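Archive transcription. Copying these from loose printouts into the bound notebook so they stop getting lost. Printout 1 of 2:
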Amino acid sequence: MRDRRIRLVLAILVVAMAGVGVAMAATRSTSAKNGTVKAAKVGKFGTVLVSSSGMTLYRYTPDRRNVSVCTGTCATYWPPLLVKRTAKPTVGSGASASLVGTTMRANGAEQVTYAGFPLYLYAGDKKPGQANGQGFQKTWYVVSATGALVKHAVSASGTGSTTTKKSAWG
């Protein structure tokens, strides 16, 4: 009898934790629907792309030009930067208007692209300036204002690299 109660409590906890994760990711995705791309200094990575609220933007290396392959659970933890279907993305300071565009996701939503590649936020970043998703599974990287992946931290002299912290999310 005691074992059954323990299993029941554990099952309830697992369901509750999953619900919190989905709610958290859904909140981040909803806040990203204005589709603004700008550049800002983000920690040791230098000047990279961020959303209108200053949240770091990422690129997923398995994506192809104008094709997002991050769907389902992936998109729960890595919400796409979206724009309303009738609107165009906004370009802020430091970003290049000629590199900003959109692509249609499998679900019909319009995802913002930069240099042709889809952009995402990371549910593990809680405040502007964080880059907790950097280097995750060697497939998620912040993006420079030129559209290049930033795989290593920038030293004070502009060269060199450091090991990036891996997150438990995703």
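Printout 2 of 2:
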Amino acid sequence: MKILAISGSLRAQSTNTTLLHAVALMAPPHIDIVVYEELETIPPFNSDLDVEPGPEPVSRLRAALRDSAAVLFSTPEYAHGVPGALKNALDWVVGSGELSGKPVTLFNASARGEYAQASLREILKTMDARLLSDAEITVPLLGKVFDASEIAANPQFAALILSSIQKIADIF
């Protein structure tokens, strides 16, 4: 089973992106976590260009979403909302429908990201995504510097992450 993992951050040292790489390290052999690495290549949404095949980065995003059984989002909060780059990418798939009915869950690298999480939930509901709220987790990484392998090796973090991955797998 393939799960697409999308970070809402463009920062090179993003805690959210690092968390997703840890998830990829920890996934059981039958689950392939693919971390999406092209968010910064998505052009600004323009409905005049929202045609098939559309801009190449958008076509690759749509294909990655179609090819995944589920999607995992981890995003920071900016100005009490979803970062613009993530919102922009989601705008490109509203009309094409790749998230319609798709199981999705939200990870959070900080308990202070509640507004972004609520905003992202609302956007995904509007897009008819299948929200897996039981699989949502917050991994308390705020103010800590970990690499992916250190997150994966931490028993507290590992238990949260593995529990969520199992909840996602259980729906299939």
